[in-house]
From TrEMBL, chains A, B:
This is Ornithine cyclodeaminase family protein. It comes from Limosilactobacillus avistercoris. It holds the Pfam family OCD_Mu_crystall. Coiled coil: none annotated. InterPro entries: NAD(P)-bd_dom_sf, ODC_Mu_crystall, ODC_N. Gene3D superfamilies: NAD(P)-binding Rossmann-like Domain, ornithine cyclodeaminase, domain 1. It comes from the Bacteria.
Amino acid sequence: MDKVTVLNSHDIATLLDMPAVIQVVKDAYAEKTTKDGEIWPMVYNAFSDMADTDIRSGLLKPKKIFGNKELTWFGDNAKKNLPELHGVVTLYSSETGVPEAFINAPALTGFRTGAASAVATKELANPNSETLLIVGAGGQAAYQIMAQICVLPKLKQVLIYDPMSSENAGKFAQELPQKLTILFADNIQMNRPTVAAKIKERIKQIKFIAASNIIEATKNAQVIVTATPSTKPLIKAQWVQSGTHINAIGADMEGKQELDTQLYQNARAFADDLDQASGVGETQNPIKDNIIKKGDVTEIGDVIVQKSVGRQNTNEITIFDSTGIALQDLEAANLALQRAKRFNAGVVVDL
Amino acid sequence: MDKVTVLNSHDIATLLDMPAVIQVVKDAYAEKTTKDGEIWPMVYNAFSDMADTDIRSGLLKPKKIFGNKELTWFGDNAKKNLPELHGVVTLYSSETGVPEAFINAPALTGFRTGAASAVATKELANPNSETLLIVGAGGQAAYQIMAQICVLPKLKQVLIYDPMSSENAGKFAQELPQKLTILFADNIQMNRPTVAAKIKERIKQIKFIAASNIIEATKNAQVIVTATPSTKPLIKAQWVQSGTHINAIGADMEGKQELDTQLYQNARAFADDLDQASGVGETQNPIKDNIIKKGDVTEIGDVIVQKSVGRQNTNEITIFDSTGIALQDLEAANLALQRAKRFNAGVVVDL
């Protein structure tokens, strides 16, 4: 019988450290460009306005694995005291087709989505950036903030703006140092003590401030992450200062929008996957408004392997559109599986 | 944490009895026609000529489940002392998106593919058929034979023809009574004793005979199952007697063929899925040869719900092209999961 390692949300939290996930997500983007990674067609189904599922799959040749991630979103689950997100990443050996792991998908997705923005920030933002603005205080916010802290060595403050409720932003900002410490340091204390200590230290050095005025906050930030389900622009072009880098991660279907399309008049556009970004990502909007063409957008993998140039000077505005590719999931899942073997984590079931 | 039931190949063998799987596969075909079942786009990837994987997914509204099956085939695995087929069916609740089960896919696939032919035979074959010919003595053969026995009450003999080796057919025929008894009766003795007893009795009543002459064997059979990886016709039109029903299950990609396309001149064509059958199933061949049009083929679900007529008289030749649909996998997986709960089988893992 096949021996399959099961890694639940607790295992993922104790095995994955954010700096390591950032490294493998960078690998994933490079593998897309070099064709060492294959992305197979995505399956998407909406059950209703409030529930959907998608299956992303692909092959990572250098790691000798392939697999799929099915992630389900049921927006009404809170009424049933259940999380909104569920799902599984299944990894297979590309040498034998044998299944190797079942991994909690929402836990992994938080890490890999945070890491995606961090990879783009590392490649595209001014490295001396001191102020990060995060728009949206939902389930992704803590992962996004932690990942940005990891790649911005000069970061001094994080501004949190919640378009739904400024009260929520205040509560979120107050609880954040403790939340980040538990999630990203305490959890890995046993397996990755050195990384845990560094992360704890960095969290202590940073101020977390609720922002009630989005105009002021935008003007003050050198790096911005938008992580909302918005369908209208939240950030206006005239508020964004030269030299700013923006990670737009909220848009993942037709009709979603977080940025003023005018912003693209004076910005350079990047994305994880050109087709997906121009179809369902933030990039769909400036293309529809005829401000940019699909050909104007650079894939981040091309920047990583130095096929294309990233930031050209300190004044440029850069925008990264993160829509999510299977290779991120497979890289992060493979990291979790390799560490599970090393630290003897998870349970092994006979299939 | 989500509680997920893991059912391995041994669990499937002890939980599923063939008559029950035939019933739920019949439900699956009906659900395709009535739209109570949704089939989502298939993902297929060939790693080489000797290895591939596919992901079939969909939704079964009446059962409140959705899910996917990834089935991998690595044809060189025998050299590594590994089975060629591996994979997993993952079931989710369509009310919450919570994963409910991980199920061994090859074990389930054997049952559901055997059951598929049996459903078609029940709907289309002459019910008094006494002789079954099975062409191919590979991994599917035992499942196909057992399923046919379940739906042909007058069956007296099973002829086994192996296009690769008549010696193999002889050995296979000799071992078959014991093999069928172990696989489909002894395995379910504990959970389904009455069904096990009936199946044992039926196996005893039937002669299993190796056939070295395919022409004679075809002429003698009232029901034929072809289950080979052939790319050339194995059964010629002139050998097939009037009134014969054929289940063609081998063809599952472009270029595969088991039947002489001339056979379709005087036969009525049925399939599980019109698009898939005319694209990659046996049905692709007579369509390419301009002998039938896609519109001439009837989906078996239409016959089951009496939207279309099945066999019209005892003299007709009928051909069923089985290519496999996700709803079969989901129905069979759901049956296994419900029984696992009832008989307290499998293990439950925290995800």
